[in-house]
């Protein structure tokens, strides 16, 4: 997927990108890097979040392969609400399901990147309602200086 999604955006498209932080198959930092480049190419994070949001799921493995704390995430209902009602998702709930009892044993909100879930100090740490959005604990360098980056990506006018 390239960075020029202007036709998609003009057509009213809405995009939810999600990735598990513990994905062993596709490094999560690559998705964060892509989203950082997407936001820079489309007017910054605030402008981009009008039509595209990234949700990074703690402890989630690759795609539907589970995780060690959070195993399930379904962004489709949030995407439908955004497209049909204009309600941009401010969180998606991830859950951990006990495979034997088939019950949810933990839920946690996943906020649009770069926000993270912070425990509000009350109630169970296994209940999503007890978490609030919080800024990252430290500033991060989200763009990876990939080898050859200068061959295909130039953030501004081409230097001569």
From TrEMBL:
InterPro entries per the record? AB_hydrolase_fold, Tannase/feruloyl_esterase
The entry's keywords: Calcium, Disulfide bond, Hydrolase, Metal-binding, Serine esterase, Signal
- Is Disulfide bond included in the keywords of this UniProt record? yes
- Report the leader peptide range: none
Q: Which Pfam families match?
A: Tannase
Q: Tell me the SUPFAM superfamilies matching this sequence.
A: alpha/beta-Hydrolases
Family to which this protein belongs: Belongs to the tannase family.
Name of the protein in question: Tannase/feruloyl esterase family alpha/beta hydrolase
């Amino acid at each position: 997927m390239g960075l020029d999604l202007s036709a998609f955006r003009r057509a009213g498209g809405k995009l939810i990108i999600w990735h598990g932080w513990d994905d062993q198959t596709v490094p999560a930092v690559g998705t964060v890097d892509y989203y950082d480049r997407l936001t820079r190419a489309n007017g910054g994070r605030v402008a981009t979040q009008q039509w595209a949001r990234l949700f990074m799921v703690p402890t989630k493995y690759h795609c539907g392969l589970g995780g060690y704390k959070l195993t399930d995430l379904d962004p489709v209902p949030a995407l439908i609400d955004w497209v049909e009602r204009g309600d941009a998702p401010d969180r998606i709930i991830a859950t951990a399901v006990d495979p034997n009892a088939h019950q949810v044993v933990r839920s946690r909100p996943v906020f649009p990147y770069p926000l993270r879930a912070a425990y509000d100090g009350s109630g169970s740490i296994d209940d999503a309602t007890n978490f609030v959005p919080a800024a990252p604990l430290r500033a991060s360098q989200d763009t990876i200086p990939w080898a050859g980056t200068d061959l295909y990506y130039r953030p501004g006018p081409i230097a001569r």
